[in-house]
Amino acid sequence: MSQTVVLRDLTDLARYKGEFAQEPEPPTKVATPTPPALDAHPDLLIQAVLRSARELEHLTERDASARREAETVLGHYRRLEADVERLRKLERDARHAESNAQAMAGSAFLPENRAQAEKVALGVAAIAAVAANRVRAVEAQMAELESGEHLSRLLAVERAEKEAHQREERALAAIERAEKLASEHKYNEALRLLGSVVKENPNMPSLASSHDTIRRQAHAVKTLEVERALAEARRLHRREPAQAVEILGGLDLSGMPSVLVRDVYGCWRQSCRRLGLVEAVHYSPGAGKGAMLVPDSEGKRLKVVAAIGLAGWTAGRTFAVKALRGARPLAA
After folding, report:
1. How far is CA 218 from the centre of its chain?
2. What tens digit of pLDDT does each residue of 40-53 get?
3. Domain limits of the chain?
4. How does residue 12 score in pLDDT terms, banded at 50, 70 and 90?
5. Distance CA 229, CA 238 (A)
6. How far is residue 49 CA from its own chain's centroid?
7. Where are the beta strands (DSSP E) in the chain?
8. 307/286 Cα distance (integer angstroms)
9. Which of 28, 95, 135, 265 is 20 to 30 Å from 81 by CA-CA measure?
10. Alpha-carbon span 198 to 241, nearest angstrom
11. Cα separation of 207 and 185, whole Å?
12. Do 151 and 77 form a contact (C-beta atoms < 8 A)?
């Protein structure tokens, strides 16, 4: 509860001055330094470029030093690898000699020869054991070196380069094999071979060029074959429509020019009209794809008479009428 204070003079005011709330002092404004305009001070730009150049030079020197150090360690690592190979060969040779000596000790005719063979077996067995122990010791040294950051990185680079070289060799061999297949007109097999290799070497120009060349060759040959088949079917479709239908029905029209596909399909359909099919219907799910069907004996299913561009639609196969809602009567 507040209490009223009566002030009689300035002395009383001084006594109670701590009881009155004081107004907070206004905050002092801190001047924000303005960054220098670099375009107004070209010397600053020059200094920044020089600092960047010195830093880059320092990084280059440090990286080169680390690489030299790693290459020195790698040289030691390679020598240890060679030592391991020699020791392993020594162990294999010693084990082989031990086996021969034991066989000699068991089959020698003279007793002194058996005794000597047993000594030889013991000696080479000891050599094999020493070699095996030495292999383990050297492999431990190699493992310790491999744990180093620089060497592990350098080994990874070497492995990557080796794998890239192996992929390139496989690609070159595949190109040679594919070109041979193409010369034998086995274009699909050649393209499948190159297609699998392209996945491993997507940025190899010679591989892409070979694949494109063979693809264009295959397309040209296929187009010519379709055109020849169409010409033969046109020659036959009036007198022998069944043969014309058979010729055209066996064609693969995928990737062919749309004009050629339309001409082939038109000739096939005209040939089907000349077959004299009763109550035949025509079903076409897409460009260059179609089938001629007739009702079966019960009238509940449609039986394929001829088809083009539809894999698996062999003559005699039946479908439910409801499954082929797009089927239309074949115009006479």
Report:
1. 25
2. 677 888 888 888 98
3. 60-147, 150-222, 237-329
4. low
5. 15
6. 42
7. 281-286, 289-295, 301-308, 318-320, 328-329
8. 13
9. 95
10. 44
11. 19
12. yes
